[in-house]
Fold this protein.
Amino acid sequence: MTEQPLLTAEDLRLSFGETKALDGASLHVWAGEVVALMGSSGSGKSTLLHCLAGILTPESGRVGYAGRDLSAMSDTERSALRRGEFGFVFQFGQLVPELTCRENVALPLRLTGTGRREAHRTATEWLERLEVADVADKRPGQASGGQGQRVAVARALVGRPRVVFADEPTGALDSLNGELVMKLFIAAAKETGAAVVLVTHEARVAAYSDREAIVRDGVVREQEYVR
Amino acid sequence: MTRLRTWAFEIGLGARMSVAGGRAGWTRLALIATGVGIGVAVLLAVATLPTALAASNARTEARTENIAASTDLPRGDDTMLIGIATMMFRGDSVHGRMLQAEGSRPPVPPGVTTLPGPGEMLVSPALADLMADEPLLAQRWGARVVGTIADEGLSGPADLAFYLGTDTLTEETGHRIAGFGYAGVEDEGGVSPVMLLLSAVGMVVLLMPVMVFMASAVRFGGEARDRRLAALRLVGADAAMTRRIAAGETLAGALLGLVVGAVLAVGAGLLVNRYASGAMSFYLTDMRPVPALVALIAVGVPAVAVLVTLSAMRQVVVQPLGVVRLSGTTRRRLWWRLILPVLGVALLWPLKDGLGGSSGVELQAAAGVALLLIGLALLLPWWVEATVHRLGGGSVAWELAIRRLQLDSGTAVRAVSGIAVSVAGVIALQGLVSGVESTIGGEGGSDARPFQHEILPRADLPDQTWITALEKTPGVREVQTVRSVYGTQDGTSVRIRIGDCAVLAAFAETAGCADGDVYAVDVPAGPATYELSDDTTWTPPTANHEVAATPSYEIYGPALLITPGALRGMKVPSAETNFALNLDTADPDAVEHLRNTVATLDPQTLVSEPGNATVAATMRTIRQSLLVGTVVLLLLIGASLVVNVAEQLRERRKVLAVLVAFGTRRRTLTGSVLAQAAVPVLIGMTLAVGFGSALAAALMAMVEAPVTVDWFGIGTTSGVAALVVLGTTAATLPTLMRLTRPGNLRSE
């Protein structure tokens, strides 16, 4: 763990109408660390993840990434940051349905300017690594839920991001598939040195993290190192 | 009974669901109703045309005189002499008659209560308005306007007509009649097979895109509806029930569309009554649609709408937990899509050497064109699918668009098939119009030869009177006398003209002409004797040059042109004297001044102009209408493209949000939308230009015109189609921007 945190959230506040989603949330994430944000539905954990990723802008407070203030960046700058430095895994994979699994994985590389052939070669390696090379030329609709989620993990990691944000990555899977996805996901993330911010309400998923942060009523209440 | 009640409940539930979806539901219903309404309005207009034209024709016939049948009519207390004084003003024909009662009970034309006396005239309201606006026209007949012609004496509210009272007609210069009303002719010009063909093809070209558009309109919001139906399946509705509920939803939109269509049709009728001109001008009472056609529209449109919905639902399986689309997995088949185009070609092929004189060929041609155009609409989905499956590579935007089209090209193709059919039809019609124009020689405006205007007097006035009056007319540079003899040789009519070289140059290519030359136009060389109308014969000087007619005079057939020197004292029998004029054609008022001079001296005199101005003007109007029609049709299609793309974007909001979360640039997504709209349009246009040009060639061959490619038509329609694609993309940008806010991920 380095001296300075890679990602910081300081006193974030954000409301949706009358509902306070974040009410002074603060969190630090160090490079290579896996942090699980836990909490019940509506606690604000997903909103915190979206703020950390620069998807949502908090009304007040500051999000910092590698010494830069995300809150002060323009939409274009934040897009560029997400393109180059971040990766994402969502509950339902959210793969682009018309692209093949290989094309989906290659997409982040192509968005950063990598040539089609090179992007596809790297994507194939990642699909092999996550043991889903057999669905490379299939569309997401033709793959199973577990396979689709592993493809989504491959897509999140293919660009070797410094941070991967995962929002309930196993929420739509049975426990067996969920375990497999998490095992492969965390192993691959550790291998690439990416930090992972993981939103979950399942203890067995949180068990893959280095640290658990409990979010309640829009505030990070407790933090505990699990390993 | 119970089953009927259940069905009624389900259909009613569907109708309720169509308005229950809040703003989105109302928007969808409004879009369907507007789309169907526009289609219904066009159909009602078509259903109104037969009665409106019949009413207009009936009035035209009621005022027409049977001159040919009354040549031996003796003068009586109930007869009158009439003179044909119809004349042009600018591009419009002004129907005119000189009336001279011969007794105390003369016939009165419809719409007239009291005949105008000498020096008086009755005018139609439209002519009165025009005379008030145009001082040049107001002074034409030098008569006092004493009243207007009532509606029953006019073809429509825009009809330009007048009755001029006179006492100068004689049995030689006028025609004796004992009454008005002659049903022997349709109108003064008659309806040519070419015009029938134009109308028939025009109708097909107009109706086809309307059908496609209506079919597209009833599918607006279909994806959202399928999701609602999935929710109903979750609470126990079976597949048949969901189909009936969907039918109910569509039915509500279609019925509302009928109401919207009726309102639009009434509005269009009011506009036509007020602003339309020429043959399309009708009174409100004329515009009553054929009841049987109205019934067909009222029943057929909702029925077709329901059928389209049910057919669209064959492509999806609505299951309790969601909707599964089948379109990506079933490949389209080619063979049955070729049946209609092949039938179309089979119908058109026998007509490739011309329409001939047999009746019903226009119908055959129209049916052939219709089958080809419908065939195009059927071929397009296969063509697009086959093409996009071969595409790949390229940028991310291109790849996203192509993969999307590969997964489901149906939505895009539905809108594009409208464009393709319209463009193919319009290119075919433009080609046909160009073909007809090339056979009639155009308006002659580009022919700069002098002496193209000719005066053919009817009244017996001294030549010098004419020459003096014509020379004083503003815009007339020079007046030359031409003597004309009409002869027949071996059954062929030949017009023999005698005039100076300068004058004859207007009629034929007489370069190097010298006094003493004789020119033959489509007449065999060598000496010839002609039979004249008074049963005598004449042998004019023998032609020493064979030449071609000038473009303006090609349509007048064989002619013999003689310079005065060639006569060498020879006596010319029963020649009529005409006057050829060198007119300042740069001044548009010159020809109107000329017509004023002519009308003052003898309103029955014919002013012959270069080319075939009336037909050319009609063709120009058709061309302009086609262009306006194309733009309107393409805008209509563009509107449905916008709705389709916006709906697709809404459907994909989560995927779009994820792409943005990854940092995908908006221009990549915009490029993807553009390519997604442009690729099917490009494929559709290629097919349309091919089909349209082939159709145009077939139609040109039918009217025996030289087969050419109408690049202007192709360019214009393709350009507008390209604008529609760009416009579609631009119009969907706000939706794209709204949907690609990363915050949309929050719904995850």
